[in-house]
Design a protein that fits this description.
The complex is a heterotrimer of chains A (about 280), B (about 350) and C (about 280). By secondary structure, chain A is mainly α. Chain A contains 14 helices and no strands. The longest helix of chain A has about 35 residues. Chain B is α+β, with helices and mostly antiparallel strands and about 350 residues long. Chain B contains 10 helices and 19 strands. In chain B, the strands form 4 sheets. A 6-stranded mixed beta sheet of chain B has the order 6-7-8-3-9-10, sandwiched between helices. In chain B, a hairpin with a 2-residue loop joins strand 15 and strand 16. Chain C is an all-alpha fold and about 280 residues long. Chain C folds into 2 domains: about 35 residues; about 240 residues, MetI-like (MetI-like fold, Orthogonal Bundle). The two termini of chain C are about 45 Å apart. The chains are: A mainly alpha (about 280), B alpha+beta (about 350), C mainly alpha (about 280). Chains A and B meet through helix 1 of A and strand 1 of B.
């Protein structure tokens, strides 16, 4: 009885000063930048009728855009996962000239404004562009097709998998592989049985992060996409055009579906990330 | 009133919870001025919580903490006039040794001359002359410990608190540092409390030991006092080298304690004799089998088995060696019988009877 | 011997794939920007870059970037301090909310602000009364830029402060140091490089933001046009050469920040290894 009573008034001392001030500033700025706008979104959504929302998001053109966005983001992220593992491996395990330069280059997609990436990739892959003209000879068009969208998304997503897999590989104890090698395992077996199990949670995390980014990507895609309804129209572009028509209700409805998608991805990512950090810390 | 005046630091009925966990359970004790006291207990026993509450780094949920006759519960940590040495020293990693020690004085806005004099005094006190410009990362563990000590002392605290002061130092340096710290604190005469889980450390350094277990204070007293007269079952087993005996009636000629059967044995409670050696109390001897013999530098530890009990007896190097498998005689002088949480020190009756005869 | 050889073969094969991949996807686009920008000679290039609207766009981009960096830095420092130095309920919710903006598509970020400050908002009458224009005006652009770079500084600081622990601050506080002294003398040296790193990340993302800004800008040339938006307009008007010329400014800025970033990373790593 008394124990229960005592427990309720457990006291906390804060020896380090500045709790009120720092939390106050944090909450104030957070309110203005994030909480109030998010609350508005919730309020606005609450005012919409459920049927209207369903009607809006199930229009064939909108559904087609979901498919285009999801498909291209998935393919781009999958390619980036494979390339990301290779790049991380090369950067961690091998020594060669310009390695540091290459390591720095990986960050370029984060640093380069997406609009710039968009127009230069478009110029590169259009029928008379440096790369596009080569493929045009075989009748393959890159720009203004889904392939073009995928190319832009690959560009955007390059750093994600590399940067999640790299630290895991760095922490990986080489004696593992040596032990496996001594026991007579060939290189492929070593990779499959010893290394891959260690890096795949990180790779999946990177894949998820890239996927989340790619689904919402706008700047680098609009130029190269061609924006043909049903064919190369991505979801963010539909939202953009609804906004330009001042059709806020439709824009919000479509945005909600996208938000649900990206939170779902984020949820899965944080699950894998938790496992991932456990692994990194365990390897210390 | 006079009771209070005697204690420089006093805790009265302190309780502290961390969620469901009762970290301090009705803790009360007093510490005299000038004493060097150890809070000793296994990890999770609540000893660090007590120290942090005295410092003001944690607040008790109920009860009073009194320092120098003043209830300090609502006095912030920085105004309590204490020096605190953290377990990992918490030295400012981006400040030199000099600046670390000077920090508290700079906060008090003392003049540069005064600060300089005090820092120099402390640096030579801890024997680190010439290393003032080093950063903590450039010091050894023992040196860091000394800097932490000097930093805590710089503003002239009335009470020094040390959280596991030797835990992060390797074994070799630890012994040397223990006696250094003891001498230093004695020299300065500052009331000090330190937390440790190592009983050797507590015995060696402290004037007085407070044994904690599961949030409670088990016993308080001088090392020898606790050793001789443990008051609780925990204190009896935690302190010194001890062996658990399931049924003490295995050993004859001891008084019977109603309802109790467990007991604690210590090596110095026993006498081990070889078959052919003369013995004093032939009636009550127990025949035990030697399990192992280990050389321990100044003596030999003989592990023996008697009925279901395994325990250690000591022999000197001068005595005739015993061998594994040999049957030896054991005489038990004393036993600590555990009666619930109470402890009874029983003396072998043979000691009285035969001495009367002789 | 055969083992060794196949080892070498795999190595060069993997390095070759990596180099080709990065060349195609990272180097070529940069090359295209430069060649297209100078296609009609240096004079034309200069004309495009020093064009009145381009200069105005540069200034607006700088303005939005400075605002975003300053606000997010102040916020980031206080938020990181609150989150890492104290125990309190709801910490997890707080950090999730701080990280939220980067997980939202820039277009949706823009949409949220349009809903909050636009014509149909409940706040709109209030804003109109005081003649405050946010949507399709500079404040909207600044806000959108702050939003998309919101956690960039705090995200760099929190792990550093977390691994540093609270011991040093507690020790300083026990000796009576006040908040600003503790921060200045004890905490700041720990986070100096991480802070700088966060600032650079924030700046490089802020100057390049396109989607969110695009929603809120209204594309008024010379008024609400940032550099990336200016690039878009020029490109859509088929003025390719000027579009690439303006892009080259952004490329130079991006690469500069990238270099600064790797220097900071390198120096910071070296210093934390010592301490």
């Amino acid at each position: 009885m008394t124990e229960k009573k005592l427990k309720r008034k457990t006291k906390n001392v804060r020896v380090i000063p500045g709790f009120g001030l720092s939390l106050g500033i944090t909450l104030t700025v957070l309110s203005f930048v994030v909480i109030i706008p998010l609350a508005t979104l919730v309020i606005f959504t609450a005012g919409m009728s459920f049927n209207d929302v369903i009607m809006t998001v199930t229009k064939p053109r909108v559904l087609a855009s979901f498919r285009v966005s999801f498909l291209t983001a998935f393919i781009a992220s999958a390619i980036n996962t494979v390339m990301g593992i290779i790049l991380a491996w090369v950067l961690v395990r091998y020594d060669f000239p310009l390695k540091r330069f290459m390591d720095g280059m990986i960050e370029l997609p984060f640093a380069l404004p997406t609009a710039v990436a968009g127009i230069s990739l478009t110029a590169l892959t259009s029928d008379n562009g440096l790369v596009g003209s080569f493929f045009a000879k075989f009748g393959i068009r890159l720009a203004y097709t889904r392939v073009g969208i995928t190319i832009a998304l690959i560009f955007i997503g390059i750093p994600f998998v590399v940067r999640t897999v790299q630290p895991v590989l760095e922490k990986l104890d080489p004696s593992y592989e040596e032990a496996a090698g001594v026991m007579g395992a060939d290189r492929f077996t070593i990779f499959r049985r010893v290394i891959f199990p260690e890096i795949w949670p990180a790779a999946i995390t990177g894949f998820g992060l890239a996927m989340g980014r790619c689904i919402g990507e706008y700047g680098s895609v609009v130029f190269i996409a061609g924006n043909q309804p049903f064919e190369t129209e991505i979801t963010p572009l539909i939202i953009m055009s609804k906004l330009q028509e001042y059709d806020y209700a439709s824009a919000t409805a479509i945005a909600l579906v996208m938000l649900i998608f990206s939170f779902l991805i984020l949820f899965l990512v944080s699950y894998f990330q938790a496992r991932n950090t456990k692994m990194i810390q365990g390897g210390r | 009133m006079s009771e209070e005046n005697k204690s420089y630091v006093e805790l009265k009925n302190i309780n502290k919870f961390y969620g469901e966990y009762h970290a301090s359970n009705n803790v009360s004790f007093g510490i005299e001025k000038g004493k060097l006291v150890a809070l000793l207990g296994p990890s999770g026993s609540g000893k660090t919580t007590i120290l942090r509450m005295i410092a003001g780094l944690e607040a008790p949920d109920s009860g009073e903490i009194i320092i120098d006759g003043q209830v300090v519960n609502d006095i912030p940590a920085s105004k309590r006039g204490i020096g605190f040495v953290f377990q990992n020293y918490a030295l400012f990693r981006y400040m030199t040794v000099y600046e670390n020690i000077a920090f508290g004085l700079r906060i008090q806005k003392q003049s540069n001359d005064k600060i300089d004099a005090r820092v120099k005094e402390l640096v030579s006190l801890i024997g680190l002359d010439g290393l003032e410009k080093r950063y903590p990362s450039q010091l050894s563990g023992g040196q860091r410990q000394r800097v932490a000590f000097a930093r805590a002392l710089a503003p002239n605290p009335h009470l020094l608190l040390l959280d596991e002061p030797f835990a992060a130092i390797d074994a070799k340096v630890r012994k040397e540092l223990r006696s250094w710290l003891k001498n230093m604190i004695e020299k300065l005469g500052i009331t000090s409390i330190f937390v440790t889980h190592d009983q050797d450390e507590a015995v060696e350094v402290a004037d007085e030991i407070i044994i904690t277990n599961k949030g409670r204070v088990e016993q308080k007293g001088s090392p020898i006092d606790i050793y001789k007269n443990p008051e609780t079952a925990f204190a009896a087993q935690f302190f010194g080298q001890t062996f658990f005996v399931e049924n003490y009636r295995d050993f004859k000629t001891f008084d019977s304690v109603e309802g109790a059967s467990n007991a604690v044995l210590r090596p110095e409670f026993l006498k081990l004799t070889k078959k052919d050696e003369p013995k004093k109390y032939s009636v009550t001897i127990a025949k035990a089998i030697v399990q192992s013999v280990d050389f321990r530098g100044s003596n030999i530890e003989v592990t023996v088995k008697y009925k279901n009990n395994i325990f250690i007896a000591r022999r000197t190097l001068d005595e005739a060696p015993v061998e594994v498998g040999e049957e030896v005689d054991i005489f038990v002088y004393r036993l600590l019988v555990l009666d619930g949480d109470k402890v009874h020190l029983l003396k072998n009756r043979a000691l009285d009877e035969e001495s009367v005869v002789i | 011997m055969a083992e060794k050889q196949s080892n070498g073969l795999v190595k060069y094969f993997l390095i070759a794939i990596s180099v080709i991949f990065l060349f195609l996807f990272l180097v070529l686009p940069l090359y295209v920007v430069v060649t297209e920008a100078f296609k009609k000679g240096a004079e034309q290039y200069w004309q495009a870059v020093s064009d009145e609207y381009t200069v105005k766009a540069i200034l607006l981009t700088l303005e939005a970037t400075v605002f975003a960096v300053v606000i997010n830095t102040v916020f980031g420092v206080f938020a990181a301090w609150a989150v890492t130095k104290f125990r309190f309920e709801g910490k997890k919710v707080l950090t999730t909310l701080i990280d939220l903006p980067v997980t939202v598509s820039p277009i949706i970020a823009g949409l949220i602000y349009v809903l909050t400050f636009g014509r149909q908002s409940i706040l709109y009458p209030l804003l109109e009364k005081y003649d405050i224009k946010i949507v399709f005006a500079v404040p909207g652009i600044v806000l959108a830029t702050i939003f998309v770079t919101f956690p960039f500084v705090s995200r760099e600081l929190i792990p550093v402060l977390e691994s540093q622990g609270t011991d040093e601050e507690e020790a300083a506080a026990l000796m009576g140091a006040n908040g600003s002294t503790i921060f200045r003398r004890v905490t700041f040296p720990h986070i100096k490089w991480a802070l700088l790193y966060g600032v650079v990340l924030c700046a490089s993302r802020a100057m390049g933001e396109f989607g969110a800004v695009s929603v809120l800008s209204g594309h008024l040339r010379g008024k609400t046009n940032t550099l990336p938006l200016h690039v878009e307009i020029l490109f859509n008007e088929f003025q390719y050469m000027p579009a690439f010329a303006v892009s080259s400014i952004l490329v130079v800025m991006a690469i500069l920040l990238l270099i600064i970033r790797s220097i900071i990373e390198h120096k910071g790593k070296k210093e934390t290894e010592i301490r």
